[in-house]
Amino acid sequence: MPSVADIFRAPEYGPAPESPAPAVDWLEAHHRTFGHFIGGSWTRPPSPDEPENRSGNESEGGTDGGFETRNPATGELLARVTQGTQAHVAAAVAAAEAALPAWQALGGHGRARVLYALARGIQKHSRLFAVLESVDNGKPIRESRDLDIPLVARHFHHHAGWAALVEEEFPHREPHGVVGQIIPWNFPLLMLAWKVAPALACGNTVVLKPAEYTPLTALCFADLCREAGVPPGVVNIVTGDGRTGAAVAAHPGIGKVAFTGSTEVGRILRRETAGTGKALTLELGGKSPFLVYDDADLDSVVEGVVDAIWFNQGEVCCAGSRILVQESVAERLVSKLRARMETLRLGDPLDKGVDMGAVVHQVQLDRIRELVARGREEGARVWQPSWAGDGNRATGGGNGDGGTADGDEGDRGAFFPPTLCTDVEPAGTLAQVEIFGPVVVLMTFRTHEESVALANNTRYGLAASVWTENVNLALDVAPRLEAGTVWINCTNVFDAASGFGGVRESGFGREGGREGLLAYLRPRGRSDTEMAAEAAAHNPATGVRTSPALGIPPEPGSSTAPGSGDAHSPLAEPVPPTGYGDDVNPALDRTPKLYIGRKQTRPDGGTSLGVVAAEGGALLGVVGRGNRKDIRNAVEAARKAFPGWSGATAHLRAQILHFLAENLAARSTEFETRLREQAGLEPGAAAREGSLSVERLFTWGAWADKVDGRVHATPFRNVTLAMVEPVGILGIAAPDSHPLLGLVSAVAPAMALGNTVVVVPSQTFPLSATDLYQVLDTSDIPAGVVNLVTGLRSELVPVLADHDGVDAVWSFGGAAEAREVELRSVGNLKRTWAPVAGGAEPPVHWSRPCRAQDERFIEHATRVKNIWVPYGA
Amino acid sequence: MALLDSPPTVSPAQPDRSRPVDTHAPARNPGIPLKLEWVRSLQVNRSAVERRAGSLTARRSVKKEWQAAWLLRAITLMDLTTLSGDDTASNVRRLCAKARTPVRPDLLQALGADQLPIRTAAVCVYHRWVPTAVDALQGSGIPVAAVSTGFPHGLSPFPQRLAEIEASVAAGAQEIDIVITRAHVLGGDWEALYDEVRRFREASGEAHLKAILATGELSTLTNVARASLVAMMAGADFVKTSTGKESVNAVLPVGLVMARTIRGYLERTGHEVGFKPAGGIRSAKEALAWMILMKEELGNRWLDPHLFRFGASSLLADIERQLEHQATGRYSAHHRHPMA
Asked: Which domains does chain B have, with CATH numbers?
């Protein structure tokens, strides 16, 4: 050890170790073996004498050897935990179900007390949690102590508040029941808090599976639950690997699945839960852009990069991993970043002077190395601090000015140095792939337009960071970025009062803030009696004819498929005498085509479908039979229209909806006649559907400029703007039952809130949709805002659900279609809304609109972007 | 009585030449012509700076031997200061004695630091007490710094301010702490600020010039950065935060901005400029925070009195107590250390 005199002459940092004692004591108290936490008690822990259960074999009794969790900085064995089986998960769900009635009966205030006790408990044991997190995950104690744990306490405290308010703030919603939660290893306890706190506040009970690499703080939290008086069964913790997570997601007793983790696993969960009626939120990966404009405070930008990518070893889903810098300042920024890397300190996570600790696991370290190696091969210049040696085997300590105090972690632990990659093009692996390590790429842009284009040139959309001193530029760029969170002149700032979550393949749903509560509340269902009454009101005995009688078979490929030249060919029946037909002249042919980009276009396939009258089976007309290319064209038209429509003022959109109502009303007789002929509605019912459609347009014209955002009360000097944005391109599979009203009721909110839509109208009664073309034309609706593709829903809806350029699909076509849509949404992880009877939320009641239902449309037609704008001169 | 009866004069006391020449003393900052476009391009984001300043010192920790060594070093970076209306020759002499022997020798011995040159970097007084201090520090090698140019407001007639510098230099001051005209900064009159500091620098001659920006009165951090840069362009050897008389004195975000501006000036001109936070730095912990800031932002050269000073009057007393704690393991008390 150097003497005082030595240090005086060369003032370096000494070791500043945090004692691991609190974590060690807690682990020893549990004999370093852990069962699951189910129903308020521990299950039998794995026996250390048994081999690890890595085989994949289910061991229902849970008496196998479990698996190990190790300190990634040292390789030291920390504990042995249980591999959760289906039986364990079932027991946990049963405990959660059993706890539900009493937990809900406790009421908001009672739940608030419990959450408050958890917040206080986290604070009381903050050192234990911080140290345990650092030894299990490898993150620096400074971060677990100063960021993770305080945010955990803040989250429980904030949601203790929501528990008290939620029932009256969300009168139309109710808890899901038992919620299954699966969390990642990068912020183990913080992600637990993000999941558990809002779920409990809303009156759910939970079964949570922590990550395989980092189960310990969740298990410690289980101890805290007992201490804080959380009723048994309200919180259940089941440890294990992906198989355990799959079992949680698959269990029929789970009403909602919430997941944070990789996009790959998110896809699996989407597929597994498709058609089950389970609600799902996913918070997935990212490749978040970090935009630097020429007027930015570059020294602050450098610290921003440190916080963006060298925070938590870069194992941050929203890490700013793509620096996009304006050309004129790129060189200076690179040189500043290189200088800054030199003073970062890598080493023992329990040293209070260390900036970067260990990567969570050797597997992750290997992945980072492999990706960086590939980047080098592709021509990237890889910059690492001089103390990193050969770069891939940084041991710390080699840096006289900034290295670590203890030089030998690298021999045993999983360490990777801070890394900056230049000479990377957007096509490069490093620019595309989420590395989940301390590796950032830097690319340049020429113009503001190009910066936005490059920023959005990714399949992800979790977060973005914008650095400029020009408020006009910042607030111009922020809304145009595809991201759930935009940080202006800051990065990786979080708070319980602000929502966090992604768009595109970064997932859907928000955590935190008012918007985050929606993930743990579902629309209140109506009683079966009400449902029956609703059905009766719309379907009198003389009402809707089923589709086979209308000349369109329900499924293609059957022997009676249209266009196959059989008896159902549209040419088989005479055209009824309309269109000024008389004794001399045949009726003038009127053939509705598809409506794409404000043009009536012939279906690509050149085939049509006949529509027959409800009464008597006369052929009322034919409609185009759209195919996948028509859908493609319609989506392109909608994409083209989106910037203009979403950028138009809400006032303009309101005016257009009112104008549309006006024009529809002017032709009410025509539409009513069509409803009567086509669907066989009684005159009264047809008139009601027509007038309700007009009313819906008025209602959404009203909402258009009244769905306000918020400013969240986050505890920093900033405004956190929760901005409401349109989802984007919506595919809407309109209901069959209400040919006009169903279509209008779905399209109007989507339009009102700035989306552009591709609609598959009612298959059985498409003429009410095709009749709308002229009404749309006369209502000043810009080209591409509304596109209608008639045809067979089984042919068209899957194409919409598959389409990577569609941001969300709404399906109102029943359970089979709902499942299909959810299954196919995995490609780009688009949002879906497919309410079906018996699902997580009640079906839409088209003829009985109400405020509660409007809220559901608003939720699904919008997304919340949180824009953090710190201020101060 | 005798002390009070001998009014200080401008009588030329010889500057102390006995101080050993420090071989790694940096070249003085010669200044450069005013570059307005550079000045105006500086932008500081307050929130980001505050965030960095807030986390920076929490990210580093010096404990035990390291803390003792760093605190001893802090003493050698100190401009031990008295700037009170009731200063007299007696307390100035007492201060100078403390500057020579800032720590009890037995403590230094206990810490194994008795061979180290532990004394303060300078003693800082009003012009009137320069001769007293020069006399009291005779043979110690410790320079005397004089606050000057209408300190603390800097609003006396310009010729008088120049004369004041010349008088202090003539009285033996080797360092001149000038104050700038805040109106030049608030009005964006960078030419006027440049000219002012340039003239002060000329008047100082061989004495080193520290430009006090009175950052607490400059309204914005961007102004702090721009004023720092202009002062450096005009040839200031040090930029200094405060007079100690403003309502807000040395705070870390301001220090961070000034350190970064020094770095930017170094990068573009190759000239090293010193930094002196002053006012309100009272605890050993705060001193360590400032040193960590300098080490992180500018490197170890800025942990040397040639490039870094604390302006402080009561800081030393706290450092002495911390050193005793390190030496004995017991918490110390003020009365156990000779007062300044």
From this structure: 32-328 (3.20.20.70)
CB count, 10 Å around CB of A10? 12
Q: Report the 10 Å Cβ neighbour count for B302.
A: 23
Contact residues, chain A, for B68 at CB < 8 Å: 4, 7
pLDDT tens-digit profile of A245-254?
A: 999 999 999 9
Confidence of residue A696 (pLDDT cuts 50, 70, 90): very high
β-sheet bridge partners, residue B78: B310
Q: What is the chain A residue with the closest CA to B218?
A: A873
Residue A512 covered by a domain: no
Chain centroid to Cα A310, Å, comes to: 25
Residue A25 is assigned to a structural domain of this protein: no
Q: Are A797 and A824 in contact (CB under 8 A)?
A: no
Q: Which residues of chain B have pLDDT under 70?
A: 1-26
Q: Decide if A715 touches B, using CB distance below 8 A.
A: no
CB contact under 8 A, B50 and A355: no
B126 and B146 Cβ atoms separated by less than 8 Å: yes
Element containing residue A726 per DSSP (H, E): strand A718-726
Model pTM greater than 0.95?
no
Q: Tell whether A870 lies on the interface with B, counting CB pairs under 8 A.
A: yes
Which structure tokens are listed for A212? 């395989």
Q: What distance in Å separates the CA atoms of residue A201 and residue A217, rounded to the nearest whole number?
A: 21
- Whether B276 sits among the annotated catalytic residues: the reply is yes
Q: Interface of chain B against chain A, CB under 8 Å?
A: 43-52, 55, 58-66, 68-70, 72-73, 111-113, 115-116, 219-222, 260, 263-264, 291, 295-296, 299-300, 303
Interface contact A3-B65, CB threshold 8 A: yes
Closest CB to B46 among A11, A142, A873: A873
Task: Work out the pLDDT band at A619, boundaries 50, 70, 90.
Answer: confident
* CB-based contact, A714 to chain B, within 8 Å: no
The DSSP symbol for B16 reads P
| Residue labelled with tokens 């550079």 | B38
Q: Domain for residue A171, yes or no?
A: yes
**DSSP bridge partners of A619:** A612
Q: Are residues A88 and A101 in the same domain?
A: yes
Q: For residue A9, is it within any domain?
A: no
Contact between A14 and B64 using a beta-carbon 8 Å cutoff: yes
Same domain? A278 vs A339:
no
- From the candidates B98, B240, B304, B318, give the one annotated as an active-site residue: B240
